[in-house]
Automatic annotation (TrEMBL):
Residues 122-267 form the MOSC domain. This is MOSC domain-containing protein. It holds the Pfam family MOSC. Transmembrane segments: none annotated. One of its GO terms (molecular function) is pyridoxal phosphate binding. It comes from the Bacteria.
Length: 271
């Protein structure tokens, strides 16, 4: 059996904006530290993503010196930053999929900057530490909570899975289309489908549900342009129950730290 090694750790501080690649990360109760703790919402409080607004891919996020900064990938003079702990204290009711939860607006200037970029009124909100958005009870073990991620604290994909897909595509794509938190090397394509429980470093994870993929994967994360791939090709060999699956959603059983190079050790395999 091949050795599995953690090769990437990624966080996406603002939902649906550019990610940050890390060498090491802290795993907190609702997921990796700073992962999807902020989100854009419209005037009705409904969450906004690249699914409808592909140009969000053009915004890169960085964290340094206690600040979160956002800059346009090709027009870096378009940028703004704010303190990681900043908020107005004003509670906002927000809707993400089937969940209604409470958030806090960061500040008016940041919201106005995003409104100008998107050309309609939006607000940037953060999830307060006191908020408890629950993981789907059909898959939760112990009332786990999640940030503004679609539904689960973490997502893992094997590098072999992307390599196998790229062998089928006319033009290869990057892993950033799939927005994983963890990427690992070793094993055949989609070996992660067989993981039941596994350790990365000293942290125990359960793979609880395949990740259903949407139109966001068809958006080039460097240009914001939308195409037909990889969904068209994936539909031919990764359709399960009428949904296209790629990667595994995870729950973690305790907190800890992880770093690139950690070995992934499978504890139990799925039948």
């Amino acid at each position: 059996m091949n050795k599995f090694v953690l090769s990437e750790i990624n966080i996406y501080p603002i939902k649906s904006l550019g990610g940050i690649s890390l060498q090491k990360a802290k795993l907190e109760e609702r997921g990796l530290q700073y992962d999807r703790r902020w989100m854009l919402v419209d005037e009705e409080g409904i969450f906004i993503t690249q699914r409808k607004h592909g140009k969000l891919a053009l915004l890169q996020v960085n964290i340094a010196g206690g600040k979160l900064s956002i800059a346009h990938k090709t027009l870096p003079e378009q940028n703004i930053s704010f303190s990681l702990d900043e908020d107005t204290g004003e509670q906002v009711s927000v809707i993400i999929w089937n969940d209604t939860t409470t958030a806090l607006e960061v500040n008016k200037a940041v919201s106005n900057w995003f409104s100008a970029f998107l050309e309609f009124k939006v607000r940037l909100v953060k999830m307060p530490e006191t908020e408890k958005r629950m993981v789907d009870r059909d898959y939760a073990f112990n009332n786990e909570i999640v940030s503004f991620a679609d539904g689960y604290p973490c997502l893992i994909i094997g590098q072999s899975s992307l390599n196998g897909l790229n062998e089928k595509l006319l033009e290869p794509i990057l892993m950033d289309r799939f927005r994983p938190n963890f990427v690992f090397t070793g094993g055949e394509p989609h070996i992660e489908d067989r993981f039941k429980t596994f350790y990365i470093g000293g942290v125990l994870f359960s793979a609880v549900k395949p990740c259903a993929r949407c139109v966001l994967t068809t958006i080039d994360q460097q240009t914001g342009e939308k195409g037909q791939e990889p969904l068209r090709t994936l539909a031919g060999y990764r359709t399960i129950g009428k949904k296209i699956m790629f990667g595994q959603n995870l729950l973690h059983h305790h907190l800890g730290s992880l770093q690139v190079g950690d070995e992934l050790k499978v504890k139990n395999w799925k039948d």
